[in-house]
């Protein structure tokens, strides 16, 4: 099979298209013919050596959608989707014509989604679900403020929050107009560097209370604003750190407010655990409650290096490989 492949860490220039041995469906394993696989920022960071635990040499790629061609008879020909914190890191990933995964990881793709659309769901919606539902335990009637709402994770969180029955405030430098998130927002705040101002604006929109949950999909540079906008005994979920790995916290304000600060990391969910969550999400896509994020550009596998460079250069939106 053909696959993207890297033997050392570096910029996308270290990636090459290589012939690799076809994976074999051993007991408990299935082989998927990959029809589409998205490229996430974490894939670019993985190739750069910025992600922990990657074993070289490696085929990268976390998200995928395709058809089972080897494995148990009940799965043969099934259209599936998946993601995982292990594939592309400690086991070969989805940026290839074929992918081997445990049978337990198989999750049937929503019938309403094509392969391209299904391939951009994984990372964004799994971490969105993990942070919003499982970690913050958002409940009906609460207010959530979503930093980075115009991005992949933020756009997923906004939709998940709406299904949870929450009021949704989106925060970003760019308006999410034209994205699925725009249709579910109750309010939008343009992000500035003034964390005090952002916190005050969130509180003005919540009658002085602040948001019950703040989902910070940016992190680092936005952490002070996230903490400034959270309600008494509110929950802040952080999944990233952009610009800086550290944040200064006024501990007196922090404990007086009894703020709950959580980290959520989808890398801790392997392809099996991620498949369980995708199965939970399936019905929301088929009902139309969730919509996949817009795809900006598609590339053939042969142009995989170009696709990685495009993402590294800051292309906005989802990028998809078609092996």
Automatic annotation (TrEMBL):
Keywords: NADP. SUPFAM superfamilies: GroES-like, NAD(P)-binding Rossmann-fold domains. The keyword NADP applies. It holds the Pfam family ADH_zinc_N. GO terms for molecular function: oxidoreductase activity. Residues 10-321 form the Enoyl reductase (ER) domain. InterPro entries: ADH-like_C (IPR013149), ADH-like_N (IPR013154), ER (IPR020843), GroES-like_sf (IPR011032), NAD(P)-bd_dom_sf (IPR036291), Zinc-ADH_QOR/CCCR (IPR051603). PANTHER family: QUINONE OXIDOREDUCTASE. This is Alcohol dehydrogenase.
């Amino acid at each position: 099979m053909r696959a993207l492949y890297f033997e050392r860490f570096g910029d996308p220039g270290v990636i090459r298209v290589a012939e690799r041995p076809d994976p074999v469906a051993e007991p408990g394993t299935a082989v998927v013919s990959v029809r589409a696989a998205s490229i996430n920022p974490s894939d670019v960071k993985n190739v750069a050596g910025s992600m922990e635990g990657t074993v070289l040499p490696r085929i990268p790629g976390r998200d995928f959608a395709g058809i089972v061609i080897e494995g148990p008879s009940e799965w043969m020909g099934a259209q599936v989707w998946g993601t995982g914190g292990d594939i592309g890191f400690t086991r070969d990933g989805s940026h290839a014509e074929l992918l081997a995964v445990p049978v337990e990881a198989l999750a049937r793709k929503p019938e309403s989604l094509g392969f391209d659309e299904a391939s951009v769901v994984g990372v964004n919606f799994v971490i969105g679900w993990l942070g919003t539902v499982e970690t913050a335990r958002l409940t009906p009637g609460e207010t959530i403020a979503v930093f980075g709402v115009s991005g992949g994770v933020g756009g997923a969180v906004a939709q998940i929050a709406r299904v949870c029955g929450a009021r949704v405030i989106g925060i970003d430098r760019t308006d999410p107009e034209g994205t699925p998130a725009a249709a579910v927002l109750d309010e939008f705040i343009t992000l500035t560097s003034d964390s005090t101002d952002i916190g005050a604006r969130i509180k003005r929109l919540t009658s002085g209370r602040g948001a019950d949950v703040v989902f910070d999909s940016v992190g680092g540079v936005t952490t002070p604003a996230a903490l400034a906008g959270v309600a008494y005994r509110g929950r802040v979920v952080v999944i990233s750190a952009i610009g800086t790995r550290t944040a200064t916290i006024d501990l007196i304000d922090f404990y007086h407010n009894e703020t709950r600060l959580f980290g959520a990391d989808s890398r801790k969910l392997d392809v099996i655990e991620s498949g369980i969550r995708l199965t939970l999400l399936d019905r929301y896509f088929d009902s139309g409650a969730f919509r996949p994020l817009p795809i900006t550009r598609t590339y053939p596998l042969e142009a995989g290096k170009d696709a990685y460079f495009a993402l590294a250069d800051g292309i906005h939106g989802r990028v998809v490989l078609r092996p």
